[in-house]
Design brief:
The chain is mainly α. It is 63% helix and 2% strand.
């Protein structure tokens, strides 16, 4: 998928909604992290950007914290964009296990980010509160507060935080500087959190 195709899909399905600004910020954050990894890992930069841009496209149907990933998966699968569809489902809670995925109408298989690009999208999403860089502590506190009545989601936040924190630590060590610093120092228009 090209960037133009991804941008057109987002525009067509977001209708200018506020969540589209978050999608653009996640795409830019993921791209910055991907470029910081150049020389350490082989990164498919085009896929990373387009998948990050479309990670929340399911919000055109629902804002459910898990359901939007399933809706994005269905939309993009139907359009023949399987790799990007997988990111829609796998970014939620830094991955869904097969039984969890099945509850939301997804195929009964694990949707856990495996590739570096999939994992970067999930992490970038969690390091941005709307369009501003933030810490995992702040983001998870926000997710808890916004989803206070969703026991299913809340029951899996600890696992998601552990997965995100482990990957963040791995990247900090691999890159040789804090990932959050890359985002706060280099993202134009985004305030430090």
């Amino acid at each position: 998928m090209t960037r133009d195709t991804a941008l057109a899909l987002l525009a067509r399905h977001s209708h200018g909604a506020v969540w589209a600004k978050h999608c653009l910020a996640v795409a830019e954050a993921a791209a910055r992290l991907g470029h910081a990894l150049d020389g350490h890992r082989v990164i498919d930069h085009e896929f990373l950007w387009t998948a990050a841009l479309l990670h929340d496209i399911g919000r055109h149907v629902t804002h459910d914290p898990i359901g939007h990933g399933a809706e994005g998966y269905r939309l993009l699968t139907g359009l023949g964009h399987g790799r990007e569809a997988n990111v829609c489902a796998s970014h939620v809670l830094f991955g869904l296990e097969a039984a969890e995925a099945e509850l939301f109408g997804l195929p009964a298989r694990d949707f856990i980010p495996q590739t570096v690009e999939e994992r970067l999208v999930a992490l970038a999403d969690l390091l941005l509160e709307y369009d501003a860089p933030t810490t995992l502590d702040h983001r998870f506190a926000s997710l808890r507060a916004r989803n206070a009545g969703n026991a299913f989601f809340l029951g899996r936040l600890g696992r998601a935080r552990a997965r995100a924190a482990a990957f963040l630590q791995q990247l900090d060590e691999e890159i040789g500087r804090p990932v959050l610093g890359i985002l706060t120092d280099e993202m134009p228009g985004c305030g430090k959190a």
